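User: Need the bound-state model for zinc ion:
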Amino acid sequence: MKHHVLKKLEWLSQYGKDDQNGITRLVYTDAWHQAQLALKMWLEEEGFSIEIDAVGNLLASIRGSSVPDEIVLTGSHLDSVVSGGIYDGQYGIIGGALAIISLLKKYGPPKKTLQVAAFAEEEGSRFPYAMWGSRNMFGQAKLKDVEGITDADGISLKDAMRKLGYSGKQEPKQNVTAFIELHIEQGSVLETENKEIGVVHSIVGQRRFLVTVLGETNHAGTTPMSYRRDAMKAASMIISRILTLADEAGDPLVATVGKLELEPNISNVVPGKATFTLDIRHTHQYALENMTRLAATKIHSIANQQKVDVQIEPWFTSEPVSMDEKIIKLLSESCERKEIPYKLMHSGAAHDAQVVAPVVPTAMIFVPSQSGISHSPLEYTTEFALEKGIEVLTEALHQLAY
Ligand SMILES: [Zn+2]
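Assistant: Bound-state model below.
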């Protein structure tokens, strides 16, 4: 069955369409609110009953005929990054809704309640607090955790939320028995390996640091090399060493230095200060911590040897999360039956699924992203692949809820 998913994605993309031809739909803005209302109207027309919870997560349900209190959940996030693509997040919402609609048409009402969630906030693009929607819904973040968090204009998350009538206070959702998030891969592994579906077995944990190297600013001509305490030299040695260690460790470990700043950043001055970010990810707790420790040891030993001071500040931590074995099996078997080339893989990016997974049996389905591009108006997935993803999701929801 063809779901015409692309038409629906384009329809929802009008809310937040920006002049780069991307979507800018930051949480609790007008564009975001309009998208939520449009989604609500569409899903009501399709026979879903709608609940909007205390932080603005939209939950659209088809009530179960015999076990209505058990919910099989699908969905993803409604918010976007600044100038994102039309697939990130909203594909999981629309794809989830289309899967449920096709099940209803084919089999009538489910035994368990089928529900699609449009999580209010995942990206952390307006407020520096990612996955607020799902975290609040599943009891992993309360209003006090976002106290004092503001956007670039100084508007607090709490005020932005209250302006739309959300109190931010609710009991954690209890009766969800399974969650499957359909999402674009946002990487190029599936495309490279010619697979149509990714069945995610785990989501990486992350450790992010800000590293400051303090040396001494000096004249580039009159300071002999042996006199120098060059912050850039030390920083570049550190960076090179850590990235080489990551190369040696190999998949699934990744380490990235994405930002580097020098002071005074002048061509004929020896830099006195270098600041860089370090982002380390792995699917296993032990390996993640091991690499983090190793990186810290290298940073300190190179700093010592180069006679510079160094500070390492952690600013973001998340733990690796495993997906549910049973749902992974169900998804893999479904691909095998349908002869869809698939790959068991990990997710190197964060998703709402990692918030839900510790409390509910959870899995993710990936579809290929062309050239791995995401968080950009150039983000692209073929309609064929989008439809395949929905097909696999539909079968899984059928097995879980009927
Ligand atoms: Zn996303």
